[in-house]
Design a protein that fits this description.
two-stranded antiparallel sheet; single chain; 15 strands; 13% strand; binds zinc ion; 457 residues; alpha+beta
């Protein structure tokens, strides 16, 4: 079915209603199945034009409502905006946009005409009016630029129009740019919430601080990729990228979503180096670091449940927390329970201090802090393993932990043939899945990824 109404400008069509339009759209919808791809593509441009025309009709109706005063018929305190919100279930900003568009029909007839011609879509019209009428300075300048924006709206995508409007506003009205910027900066906040199973970050920063964060995080991601590439060499199976100086750089694809990669880069390339290099001393002069506390017997027998009598006694004596592994920031307010697994993983390559406690939890004897892996052994490990030993992993030595194949708390020696380099991700995987590592005849560690043993017996 086709309906054709050729109208001369200003001609009034009696007896036509939106129901006719519904019938036309239903007919068009029914015909979609029979269209070829290129026919559908040709129709698409027409649809955008018709949608813009229809929204011009909507704006004209809103203008009529506003002028007619019908909005105060039932409620003398009503406003056009409150009337539209009630009648049409619009929210405040939608009703405001409708009214702004309606008011501008008379003030800017060329914009209304462009909308009517189907050249400027409603969302673009709203963008022009929202930015253009925000301050009196802009309002005064807008008429001189309106035709330029109409042409841009007709020919360019929304993002390009928005960008041009923002730049125009900044140059016509620099004070508002500065006020907005300052208002955003005043809203800065960073929440670090300790939840039951982890820590949640949630924040907002103004443009300057925000760009510092972007630069640091992108640099951290880049460093991860590039360090990996440097080790792989140009034979890597990554994607090629041409860098600024024209040379081709291999960028390794790292497994996992971008958000997860960013989370890892944030920890491995920003947080860990800051803590490792003692860049943040606490007020007492001790460097900020994280500290695991665990009873030695739990490290030695990680799968064994505690004796109920002992647990009952420690509840009574108030020493219950001494029976679990806990993690705390040395400068933080509280600790959190961690699994024996994680405590074992963290203590593979750490500084360890022995504290002997009385049954009531009082320290009786405090040992010296010692590094589990001495420097010379770490150096030998780097020469032997040259980075993470997990099959297919290319993380270089700087990104690795030294893992005890047989944990030191269970009698495993800190010697070359009981150690292997693993990146944080694979170190975690090895501990979580109990993946065995053996040394081959030539002294190289081998990961047996097939032999997973369950956590618990
Ligand atoms: Zn380990
Ligand atoms: Zn790895």
């Amino acid at each position: 079915m086709t309906v054709h109404h050729e109208l001369a400008a200003g001609q009034v069509v009696a007896g036509l209603s939106l129901a006719d339009l519904d019938a036309v759209v239903d007919g068009l919808l029914a015909g979609v199945a029979a269209l070829s791809g290129s026919q559908a593509s040709a129709r698409l441009a027409d649809v955008s034009r018709s949608a813009a025309k229809l929204s011009a009709y909507r704006v004209a109706l809103v203008a009529k409502i506003q002028a007619s005063q019908v909005w105060r018929d039932n409620d003398p305190n009503a406003t056009p905006a409150s009337f539209l919100r009630g009648e049409l279930a619009l929210d405040h900003s939608e009703a405001k946009a409708d009214l702004r568009a309606a008011e501008s029909c008379e003030r800017f007839p060329e914009l209304a005409q462009a909308c009517r011609d189907g050249r400027v879509a409603r969302d673009k019209m709203d963008a022009i009016l929202r930015v253009g009428l925000r301050t009196t300075q802009r309002e005064r300048a807008l008429p001189r630029f309106l035709n330029i924006f109409i042409d841009l709206a007709a020919s360019a995508p929304m993002s390009a129009l928005r960008k041009a409007l923002d730049l125009w506003a900044d140059q016509i009205d620099p004070i508002t740019t500065a006020t907005d910027e300052n208002a955003a900066h005043q809203r800065r906040e960073l929440h670090v919430v300790q939840l039951g199973d982890g820590v949640k970050l949630d924040g907002f920063f103004g443009k300057t601080q925000g760009m510092h964060i972007m630069a640091a995080l992108n640099g951290a991601l880049d460093k991860q990729w590039r360090d990996t590439t440097a080790k792989t060499g140009s034979s890597g199976n990554g994607n090629s990228e041409v860098s600024g100086d024209g040379s081709v750089v291999q960028v390794q694809r790292v497994a996992g979503s971008t958000a997860r990669q960013r989370a890892d880069a944030f920890i491995d390339a920003i947080i860990t180096p800051i803590l490792a290099h003692n860049l943040l001393p606490t007020a007492g002069g001790a460097p900020a670091t994280i500290c695991v506390t665990i009873p030695l017997e739990r490290l030695q027998n990680p799968h064994q449940g505690a004796d109920p009598e002992g647990v009952a006694a420690s509840i009574t004596s108030g020493t219950l927390r001494l029976g679990s592994a806990t993690l705390r920031a040395t400068n933080g307010p509280g600790d959190t329970i961690i699994s024996t697994h994680t405590a074992t993983e963290l203590s593979c390559d750490a500084t360890v201090q022995r504290v002997v406690l009385s049954p009531a939890g009082k320290p009786l004897d405090i040992g010296r802090k010692t590094r589990v892996i001495p420097e010379h052994i770490r150096t030998a490990l780097i020469i032997r393993d040259d980075g993470c030993i997990f099959p297919g992993c290319e993380k270089p030595p700087a990104w690795t932990h030294s893992h005890h194949i047989h944990h030191w708390s269970q009698g495993g020696p800190t010697s070359l043939n009981n150690l292997a380099l693993l990146c944080p991700r694979h170190h975690h995987k090895i501990h979580t899945n109990n993946i065995p590592i053996t040394l081959s005849a030539d002294g190289k560690p081998q990961v047996h990824t097939q032999h997973r043993t369950p956590d618990r017996k």
